[in-house]
Design brief:
The complex is a heterodimer of chains A (337) and B (302). Chain A is an all-alpha fold and 337 residues long. Chain A is built from 16 helices and no strands. The chains are: A mainly alpha (337), B mainly alpha (302). At the A-B interface, helix 7, helix 13 and helix 15 of A face helix 5, helix 10 and helix 12 of B.
């Protein structure tokens, strides 16, 4: 109950946000906004969950996309298996969703248990290495995953609770709800005492340990939760593309997610989502002019990292704080006159 | 998934054993050259060069073109190494030097950007298709026979060059004036620069040297592997595994680990082809659990 009181404002914002998203999706007949937003839901969950590690805990992971891909593959594989859909019937979709989240979480427990004990550089590197491991498994286990072709051929989507995911409107609303629920879970986690423990570990892990925090355990919990949320992103993308592809587990996908965080703003809760939107638009614009998108994106990353050094919302936040201070100063001056 | 019969019959036949051991050794030597560059740069500059694989690729492609144009493989290997070294110095001066001492995120992002740019440039210059160089003319000799197995002369050259370069780089770092200055600068850069030594130049040279090692590895790999944009990432991951198993900063450790991984790969491809990558990761995980600093490393990882 206290949780609800504490997060009443956030819940209200989430409800309004969801209503706006649904209104956009259902109100506009053209499919473009729905497709665009659905891909943002997937990429945004990947980037935001990664930011729980990077921005809040100081764990720079270079292999987060592995969990994103694993979620998509588990979900897709289960629904493509006639034995599974036969046994589950109408419950197929929710059970597959839960299996994707829990399965990815269990995999993350194993990877995390090895990685979270290590220093920054080793952590970044090992997460990358385990991601490439998953990538090579997906590529070489052709019988199960279809190798470099990916899980094509469509994912069957049996109707459940009156929700028909075959219908693009139903599917969009379903994805929007998943997205907002996951964002809310992350909001509650990062603004709760647990979230402040994460920040303390980021700023000074030794001090946290002295205060009696089991640093390894807290890091591991954060790692597992954020990986499971990345898996929901994968599920959304699997629903959207009606398949799953090995590139989802490729290192470049993680690099992209890290850049989304940097671009949107590392220290603002919704920064990574803005980064996802900005990068997606940038990609589309560049693609209109040249087929060599990678060079252009690479140069943009260099520019942002070496020249701007901060993300969009970091600038907005500074500007806002400055404006507030100017107003306060002006009020003080007026008060004195 | 597992073919233990094939594994057993290979292990009991000397011909198969010789062939697998040789191919394991050349994989190991290529890994060693790339990993020793990573480990040198990390040990001295405390920078993890996530873009190291790109220099391997640059070396391979430069060697390919030089060989096609001149027909001289030795010149090609030299151009590959020197070209990668120069690219490395430019990368260090223009980009990496701006993120020294900053958080890992920035280093990682600039390396990510660099990989994207170089991969795309390679696609523009050489095309996206696979290129094959083939065994150079100098080495088209009959293979040597040893205990029933065949050993191509080029393999011997590759192993010889790698061992020589590895020894050379250990000596460079431990015995020469250059190595002493670089190590001193790594410990206390302001002190060394107070002695009138331009630390930046030494750091750039060391970074370039590390990249040149990757470039030579690429040039040596060009005749035995196919060239493709993106070929750098696979070897990057494997060479990192080598540095982790061997111990960060330790060149002898990298050598030992590279041979272990090379043999695991070549023998594994007979006995458990689908599990080769898995076996590498198992070895790494075991080493990390029981000996977190790596087999021969002293640095802290926790």
């Amino acid at each position: 109950m206290t949780l609800i009181v504490q997060f009443r404002r956030d819940l209200l914002i989430a409800a309004i946000g969801l209503a706006v998203l649904i209104a956009i999706g259902l109100g506009i007949e053209h499919a473009w906004p729905r497709d665009f937003l659905t891909s943002i839901f997937a990429a945004g969950l990947l980037a935001m969950s990664l930011n729980m590690l990077i921005g809040y805990t100081g764990l720079v992971s270079f292999g987060h996309a592995a969990f994103f891909a694993l979620g998509g593959y588990i979900f897709g594989l289960l629904l493509q298996s006639p034995a599974f859909t036969g046994a589950m019937g109408a419950a197929s979709v929710p059970v597959a969703l839960v299996a994707a989240v829990v399965g990815t979480g269990l995999y993350a427990v194993v990877i995390g248990a090895i990685c979270v004990r290590l220093t920054e550089i080793y952590f970044a590197f090992l997460t990358l290495a385990f991601q490439m491991f998953l990538y090579s498994v997906i590529l070489s286990w052709v019988d199960l995953t279809g190798g470099d072709q990916g899980l094509m051929g469509g994912i069957p989507r049996p109707e459940f609770l009156g929700i028909d995911l075959g219908d693009q409107y139903h599917r969009y609303v379903f994805c929007a709800v998943l997205f907002v629920v996951c964002v809310m879970i992350m909001r509650i986690m990062t603004e709760s005492p647990f979230g402040y423990t994460l920040r303390m570990i980021r700023d000074n892990a030794t001090r946290a340990a002295f205060l009696g925090v089991n640093v390894t355990r807290v890091k591991l919990i954060c790692f597992v939760v954020s990986s499971s949320i990345a898996a929901v992103g994968g599920v959304i993308l699997a629903l959207f593309t009606s398949g799953a592809y090995p590139e989802w587990a490729f290192w470049a996908q993680s690099g992209e997610a890290i850049f989304m965080i940097m671009l949107g703003g590392l220290n603002v809760f919704l920064g990574p989502v803005l980064g996802a939107v900005a990068l997606r638009i940038l990609n589309d614009v560049v693609q209109m002019y040249t087929s060599h998108t990678e060079i252009v994106i690479g140069l943009v990353i260099m520019f942002v990292v070496l020249v701007l050094r901060r993300g969009i919302l970091d600038f907005v936040k500074d500007w806002w704080v400055e404006k507030q201070q100017a107003r306060l100063a002006a009020e003080n001056r007026n008060g004195r006159e | 998934m597992f073919d233990l019969d094939a594994l057993a019959s290979c292990l009991s036949a000397s011909a198969c054993l010789v062939n697998q051991a040789t191919s394991g050794l050349i994989i190991g030597m290529l890994l060693f050259l790339v990993a020793s560059g990573v480990t040198l740069i990390f040990g001295v500059l405390h920078v993890i060069n996530f873009a190291h694989g790109s220099f391997y690729m640059v070396g391979a492609y430069l060697a390919y073109t030089t060989y096609v144009v001149t027909g001289n493989y030795f010149l090609a290997a030299l151009v590959g190494g020197v070209g990668a070294g120069i690219t490395g110095i430019l990368f260090e001066r223009l980009i990496i030097s701006r993120v020294y001492g900053q958080n890992l995120l920035m280093q990682l992002l600039v390396c990510y950007a660099f990989i994207l740019i170089v991969d795309d440039l390679v696609k523009i210059i050489w095309g996206a298709e696979y290129l094959a160089m083939g065994i150079p003319a100098e080495f088209r000799l009959p293979p040597l026979r040893f205990a029933g197995g065949f050993i191509p002369p080029f393999y011997l050259f590759l192993v010889g060059v790698a061992v020589a370069i590895g020894l050379g780089s250990v000596l460079l770092v431990t015995k020469t004036r250059f190595g002493k200055i670089v190590r001193a600068a790594a410990l206390n850069a302001p002190m060394v620069s107070a002695l009138g030594i331009r630390v930046n130049v030494y750091f750039a040279l060391l970074f370039g040297f590390g990249c040149a090692l990757a470039g030579v590895a690429g040039a040596l790999a060009a005749p035995v592997r196919s060239l493709t944009p993106g070929m750098g990432l696979g070897i990057l991951v494997e060479s990192f595994i080598v540095t982790v198993i061997g111990g960060m900063g330790s060149i002898p450790g990298a050598f030992l680990a590279a041979i272990i991984l090379g043999l695991t790969r070549s023998i594994g491809s007979v006995g458990f082809p689908l599990f080769v990558d898995g076996a590498m990761f198992m070895i790494m995980a075991l080493v990390l659990i029981f000996r977190p600093t790596g087999l021969l490393g002293q640095g802290a990882v926790r």
